[in-house]
Design brief:
The protein is mainly alpha-helical. The chain contains 5 helices and 2 strands, in the order αααββαα. Strands 1-2 form a two-stranded antiparallel sheet.
């Protein structure tokens, strides 16, 4: 269960959560996802809301329907998700990020150093 944000449609928040799981390999490419009914129960939403999430993911090529069987993760879903997330970051978050860095007076060299330190810490874990 996720805590829904009032500023974003619920079906997109569910789709984001599902893509997070798919990006982590749960379920993996060519594996079946939960049915619309099970998704609705899992997220405690109306089946129509769950269906909108599924339709959205299908329109993005993340999942596909095997008629009469269910929805499955596309073979290239992890790559598609990464592409979507990168585009989303560039179009919605990077302006805010760079604005804050500039406002706080960070130089490009300081930002580069912080980034490399962050990468080092992540690789050591």
């Amino acid at each position: 269960m996720i805590n829904f944000d009032n500023n974003k449609p619920i079906y997109l928040q569910i789709a984001d959560d599902l893509t997070d799981h798919i990006a982590l390999g749960e379920p993996g490419p060519e594996e079946r996802i939960l049915s619309v009914r099970d998704l609705a129960a899992n997220y405690q939403v109306n089946a129509n809301t769950a269906m909108r999430s599924v339709e959205y993911l299908q329109s993005e090529g993340i999942i596909y329907n095997r008629r009469g069987i269910g929805y499955f993760v596309a073979a290239d879903a992890p790559e598609r998700i990464m592409k979507m997330r990168r585009e989303q970051f560039l179009s919605t978050e990077i302006d805010y990020f760079f604005n804050r860095l500039s406002m706080l007076g960070y130089s490009p060299d300081e930002v580069r150093e912080m980034y490399y330190n962050y990468i080092d810490k992540k690789q050591k874990k």
